[in-house]
Write a structure and sequence with these properties.
This protein has a single domain, classed as P-loop containing nucleotide triphosphate hydrolases (Rossmann fold, 3-Layer(aba) Sandwich). Helices cover about 40% and strands about 20% of the residues. The strands form 2 sheets. The chain has a 5-stranded parallel beta sheet with strand order 2-7-1-8-9, with helices on both faces. A 4-stranded mixed beta sheet has the order 4-3-6-5. Helix 5 runs antiparallel to helix 6. It binds guanosine-5'-monophosphate. The site of guanosine-5'-monophosphate (5GP) has 14 residues, from strand 5, strand 6 and helix 4.
């Protein structure tokens, strides 16, 4: 596959990586486009097919695995498969974009391994596991069982942070957004417009 750069944001669920990725997508100088993943998990009420995910059945997902259609895929939680379709990245590269991913830690590291020269892999670190639990409860998109499952996984994911190119501590959102903006701009080779952040460190 040929094209622009790959920018991976990975983190335990609830760390704020989706907020950071959305913020970066709104910065025109970064020329980013979001890689829409395929998933077999049920659609949440506000989610749209083709915008948040390509929703599909487990058997459709397994067919794509069989056909080698994925750049990477994971069974992130039991029966909940998630993956990046090669066709999605090729589509965005054809538009001349840098591609940004909001994916789990193993998927993020797999992309880095496949395309080391064009990938920036960033790990978003939450302040603590307790804070993660509070954020997941506040979000109320999962029941207690699922929250506990995500917290159990978070312990394992936090241990992988040193394998990433960069770590952003999301203790204060504005500081994290500014740092993410600066890092990605540096990687894609543009000068960032960093006006407007509270933290001007
Ligand atoms: P959620 O169900 O909250 O949307 O996502 C659950 C986890 O799956 C998140 O950590 C999310 O980043 C991850 N994820 C989403 N898309 C992909 C993908 O294409 N590949 C992998 N490996 N993980 C993904």
């Amino acid at each position: 596959m040929k094209g622009g750069k790959l920018i991976v944001f990975s983190a335990p669920s609830g760390s704020g990586k989706t907020t950071i990725v959305r913020h970066l997508l709104a910065q025109p100088e970064l020329n980013l486009a979001f890689s829409v993943s395929a998933t077999s998990r049920p659609r949440r009420i506000k989610e749209k097919h083709g915008e948040h995910y390509y929703f599909m059945s487990i058997s459709q997902f397994k067919n794509h695995i069989k056909n080698d259609d994925f750049l990477e895929w994971e069974e992130v939680y039991r029966d909940n498969f998630y993956g990046t379709l090669k066709s999605e990245v090729e589509r965005l590269w054809a538009e001349g974009k840098n591609v940004i991913f909001d994916i789990d830690v193993s998927g993020g590291l797999r992309i880095k391994k496949k395309h080391p020269d064009i990938t920036l892999a960033v790990f978003v670190k939450p302040p603590s596991i307790d804070e993660l639990k509070i954020r997941l409860k506040k979000r109320s998109t999962e029941d207690d069982d699922k929250i506990n499952m995500r917290i159990a996984k978070a312990h394992v994911e936090l241990a992988t942070a040193p394998q990433f190119d960069k770590i952003i501590k999301n203790y204060d959102l504005d500081t994290a957004l500014r740092e993410a903006h600066r890092l990605v701009a540096e990687y894609v080779g543009v000068s960032p417009d960093l006006e407007g952040y509270n933290d001007q460190a």
